[in-house]
Batch of 3 targets.
Target 1
Amino acid sequence: MSTEDEIIRKRLLIDGEGEGDDRRLTRLLKSFLRFCSASSEDPSERENMYQKLCITISQCEFSMNKMELIQNMNSQELTGYQHAFSDIEGKISQAHQQIAQSREDLQNARQIRKNRETYNALVKIIEEHPARQDTNW
């Protein structure tokens, strides 16, 4: 079973994008070998074989150009994703810094509130007692 899987995997790797690149190249090779080994003196038959060979070469070149364009597009997308990733990382870092600053501000605000409550409680206690000048000590 594993050998079948390996064969399928190799075929998929060779086939490229599933457009029959391996078959096209095999057909090109066979056409070229037939063209070279043809001993026919009939010029129309040789011309026919030549035209088929040229068509197959054109298809291979087109496929190669297409794959090159796809590779360039993928490279550009990768660069774009890398920039987006670094931007998102920067924003996440800024958010963490803002969260840390907000926590610190919250702690300070809680301390200030606690101090005010303590101060207000002391003021109430002090106001309940008469001033020193009013007492005869």
Target 2
Amino acid sequence: YQRRVRGREDEDGPLNKEACLLPGNRLVAAGYCVFGTACMMVISTGNGVNGFTLDPSIGEFILTAPNMTVPKKGKIYSVNEGNASFMDAKLINYLEVCLF
């Protein structure tokens, strides 16, 4: 689940397709939550990316992964290849580099 946060200038306007499909340079914040044995929220307000894990004993998210970055090389390759027919050629080329 992903939710895009609108900026102040759009707060009074209608929530429609045009209000949600704004250029990235107008983005105020972005984030997502992952639910499983733990609940993690990852958010960026334009100054780095931070991960927070829900502590159910106090009902609050605790900063557990500050300044998250993508490693130069990883051990795991994970992508929904079922959507490959909808992917841009540049993305497919990049994924092939990651795969091999």
Target 3
Amino acid sequence: MERLTSEMKPGRRRKFLANQRERRRVKAMRNAFEKLRQHIHIDEAEVKLSQFDIVCRAIDVICHLRKLLELYLLLVTSPFSSSRSFLRWHMTSIALQTMSNWESFTSASSM
């Protein structure tokens, strides 16, 4: 691999430095996608996912978590104790449905 030297012509030096910056940028992006991939549920036996697939799955996870959080906040802030039991039941059923949908999504994606 070529090294930066004081004997390089200015144009070649600029191109060399630009290439170095681009390599660092690409490496940082790869690391960011790998970190994101580790935070979403992916079966280890699954083939390598594209960056697009990783982002789509992360969006799905965030949407599911947002639904659960909204239901939880609704439960916690409800002034009616009689509705709390219904909300608990509803939140539990939504959570189970969400987990079921997520599991079927991940198993269908790995085929």
